[in-house]
Amino acid sequence: MNKVQNNKAWFFILPVIFLVAFNAVIPLMTVVNYAFQETFNNNIFTWQGTKWFENILRSERFYAAFGRQLLFTFIILLIQIPLGVFIALSMPKKGFGVSICLVLMSMPLLIPWNVVGAMWNIFALPRIGFLGHYLALLGFDYNFTQSIYAAWFTVILMDVWHWTSLVVLLCYAGLCAIPDPFYQAAKIDGASRWAVFKYIELPKMKKVLTIAILLRFMDSFMIYTEPFVLTGGGPGNATAFLSIDLVKMALGQFDLGNAAAMSLVYFLIVLLLSWIFYSVVMKGEDK
Amino acid sequence: MANIKLENINHSYSLKTENNSWAVKNINLEWADGGAYALLGPSGCGKTTLLNIISGLITPTQGVIKFNDLDISNKLTIERDIGQIFQFPVIYDTMTVYENLAFPLKNKKFEEGFIKKQVQKISEILDLGSILNNNAKNLTVDQKQKISLGRGLVRPKVNALLFDEPLTVIDPHLKWLLKSKLKELQKQFNTTMIYVTHDQTEALTFADKVVVMHEGEVVQSGTPTELFEKPNHLFVGHFIGSPGINILPCEIKENSAFFLDYEIKKNVNIKSIKDKNIKIGIRPEFIHFSEIGIPVDIISVRYLGKCKIVDVVIRNINLKLVLNDQTHVPEKKAHIKFSEKYTYLYSNNYLVN
Amino acid sequence: MSLNLTNISKKNLFETHIYSSNLILEKNSINVLLGPTLSGKTTLMRLIAGLDEPSTGKIYFNEKDITKDKVQKRNVAMVYQQFINYPSLTVYENIASPLRVLKHEPDFIHQKVIEVASLLKLNNFLEKRPHQLSGGQQQRTALARALIKNADLILLDEPLANLDFKLREELREELPKIFTKRDCIVIYATTDPMDALLIGGNTIVINEGKIVQYGKTIDVYKNPSDLISAKVFNDPPLNVFESRIKNGIVNINNIEFHLSKSVSKNLSGNYKVCIRPHHLKNKKEEIDDVEIEGKVRICEINGSETLIHFDYNKLNYTSLINGIFNYSIQDTVKFYFKPSNCLIFNSNNKITV
Question: Which of B239, B261, B287 is the last residue of a domain?
């Protein structure tokens, strides 16, 4: 009798189950399918065991892409997180300035990713684009289609422009949630600006900051569209991050088995790193 | 420690300063060094604003604040050397109890040895000694509030300690203990303490002198006994005492004050009273049952342990009596008598002398 | 109408929130659930409301098993400590909302809203929105919403905790009157013993997930069955002393006295002797009053009465005396109490005398 009643609740979460199934479980299982088998056509599959994985883990190409990816993620986190926190701290807490700041901040987030790539492509065109023109005037030999450094510089600058706002908005929300008495007590205790940041703002922002870092970490690991449109992974393979390399392998070379194995390895790396990060940060939180 | 003087303080939160937008107005107060004071009033009466003006968290629109006759109106909060304790405990999550207590001293660049001695002393007084090395985050509310208090007490030179409804979030039982502790500390340290609250019991038991505020203004300032026995304003009568003062209609005939047909006060100087809006104010504690007097019907008796509250009615006018727990309450009908000494007349809410 | 909890308990993997308890609440009763923070009040209310399912036991309403019924089926209304109203709706629509959900006729709804609003004195605010109201009015709106749908069970979880003292006093007086007119069972959770005494009805004392005592409020106050109910029910805190009793002679801290004649002479062993603060007086009233010569630690005067903390032989005593006594710290004062006013609990904290 009671069972029937309880089962009703399941109907309410069915939509979510379908949604998760369609956008996560089923695609993932397809990839798993390809990762352990070989297929040529007509959907004929032959079992390959861990062959593709062994291939991938032995290939220099994978480690090179992985290395580039780690470096890229590390650099953008290093820039975006402190910059985001800094901007959030300097934003006004009340008055009409708040809405202006919020609108300005959300603008980059509203632009489609491929448009961002295209915009920056034109913006940074050597000698013709706005950025390219002025850098050339200043005497820099700037050409992101030829110089590795210029390409990295441009990709990183673009990512910072595009995504720092997300960190800002999250931190700003965290800051706004700190009750006034905390600041007042700090004033009374004679705390310096730095002490207020270290002992009040940072601890109170810890949770949103963790979310911001995780989001930026995962997103930057998946970065594809913008560098693809901007540099196409070049010059050479200099900006071919994991996703770009993966797509090249899967669609360019139609090497589905290796690509599937690589994406699984890739997926596990993101999962593992996120988990390690999260547990380290949340250690010592209240039970 | 300091003598605190507020001169002609007015403050408005909005830029326009029309008459009705003052959060506090015409405040002139002087608090002696080492006293225990309370600001009492309902929420929105301006008491917290006034407290923040003293600590410098708010700069008043007009007026001067003096510590020891020195104008400090333009000084920053840090320079004023005060401690403030808020309604919700403010603790630094990432620090231990020790570090929390040492924080104000570290900011003032005291030497390590002195800080250690001072923190040790304060933690013993507040019974925090056993948890000094615990993380401050996972403590109970009353312990956290003690830490907030400790950060105020720990400083060797404090002009005043300000309390903004510090016991609101504490259970009644612990509230009594903390309240007595505060009072003891006040006597022990002789620090000027200003305590803001809406709870009359807290204000009266803590302070030597209570300032009652109503709609941004001070209505009466006096010792707990004065406020209780002779309220200057009907609001004070109502707000202090639980239940508050009985407010009754009054008629003046030939130098005597009458409640309905009963003469309750003789030799009233009516010549000075032009206004007809006269009310009688008598505290429930000062009405007694007697053999003769005003006949009333008893509606209900509520037993509160140490006392009884009796509701009576006469011609649709309700009165309350507060009696000692051992006093016998007659059934249904009775006579009551007002003690004349504590029966006051009020004209337009103000006491008629 | 009756609510019957049989062997109700609530636990999760790690801890027990409510130990197996039995409780029968009668129709038209107001029941105060009294206990300190985290004693299990809210958990018990959630079980009664049907927001949680008990781990063991059954809940019967009018003899019908409703243990597995969800909250929607139980016809309960709940009011919380926070003032919870729909911010975008007017007070009128807020009050009407439960009936709108039940799809009643507009005329009927209008009539009910007006009726409930006048009961809670909200007539003049019906067109306002919650944020334009004071805290007291917001909580009145929440109460009105709870009252309008004729719920069988009305659960109030510390409804007055966030209100100013005077507003609390006012609502405390009105609530029992409002509820006695309705056909429902009211459960009112609070940490404040004054709430229980002023609201009257029945009291359920709860502590650490156990129901300690249940009975008429006055009976629970006068005859606590357990040290915990005696402590919870005392405002200011009870004096509790460890003592040795030998053949009916009590020895606390080298003060010796005989228990009253009616008590068995054979009583011997270790007991806890408790004296209520207002039973410790500074006047000798009867010949066999026991004398303590105390050293005053601190005096708190609250207008009409004085709370005196004093020490005798390293033990702290608290005395609440009617009238004003301005003793200085370290004064020696004689206090008296009647042996018949002592509450004596055995080592299991159960009442003995």
Answer: B239
Question: How far apart (Å, rounded) are the C-alpha atoms in residues C23 and B323?
Answer: 34
Residue C300 identity: E
- The distance of A184 to chain B (nearest Cα, Å) reads 7
**Mean pLDDT computed over every residue of chain A:** 82
What is the domain count for chain B? 2
Gap between the Cα atoms of B155 and B164, Å rounded:
19
Contacts of B153 in chain A (CB under 8 A): none
Nearest chain C Cα to B141, which residue?
C37
CATH number at residue B311: 2.40.50.140
Tell me which residue has tokens 């409002």. Answer: C178
Chain B CB contacts of C197 under 8 Å are 302-305
In the numeric block, which tokens belong to residue C111? 């009539």
Is residue A242 within 8 Å of residue A221, measured between CB atoms? yes
Q: What is the pLDDT of residue B327?
A: 84
C70: chain A residues, CB-CB within 8 Å:
5
Tens-digit pLDDT profile for residues B319-339: 999 998 888 888 888 999 999
Report pLDDT for B210. Answer: 93
The verdict on B241 touching C (C-beta cutoff 8 Å) is yes
Let me know: does B65 contact B9? Beta carbons within 8 Å.
yes
> What is the model's pLDDT at position A1?
37
- Could you tell me the residue range of the domain that residue A43 belongs to? 1-49
Q: Residue B333 sits in which domain range?
A: 246-351
Q: Give yes or no for B42 touching C (CB within 8 A).
A: yes
- Specify whether the CB–CB gap between B335 and B290 falls below 8 A: yes
Best of C223, C278, C298 to mutate (most B CBs within 10 Å, chain B): C298
Q: Which residues of C touch B225 (CB under 8 A)?
A: 301, 303, 324
Average pLDDT of chain B is: 87
Using a CB-CB cut-off of 8 Å, the residues of chain C touching A2 are 68
Which residue of chain A comes nearest to B79, CA vs CA?
A190
Which of A188, A198, A200 is most worth mutating to test chain B (most B CB atoms within 10 A of its CB)?
A188
Is the domain of B199 the same as that of B285? no
Question: From the centroid of its chain, how far is CA A217?
Answer: 5
DSSP secondary structure of C323-335: S---PPTT-EEEE
Q: Region B50-62: what's the mean pLDDT?
A: 90
Q: What is the mean pLDDT of residues B116-143?
A: 88
How many domains, in total, are found in chain A? 2
More confidently predicted of C45 and B20: C45
Position A142 confidence tier, pLDDT thresholds 50, 70, 90 = confident
- Which residues lie below 8 Å from residue A30, measured CB to CB, with a gap of 6+? none
* Higher local confidence (pLDDT), A139 or C197: C197
Q: Do A188 and B83 touch (CB under 8 A)?
A: yes
pLDDT value of residue B273: 56
Q: Are residues B149 and B182 part of one domain?
A: yes
Q: For a pLDDT cut of 90, what percent of chain A falls above it?
A: 11
Q: What is the pLDDT of residue B267?
A: 78
**CB-closest option in B55, B94, B104 to A190:** B104
CA neighbor of C10 nearest in space, from C41, C33, C37: C41
- C261-271 pLDDT, tens per residue? 666 666 778 88
In a domain, A55, yes or no: no
Domains and CATH numbers, chain C: 2-232 (3.40.50.300), 239-345 (2.40.50.140)
B302/chain C closest Cα distance in angstroms:
7
- Tell which of B178, B180, B200 to mutate to test the C interface (max C CBs under 10 Å): B180
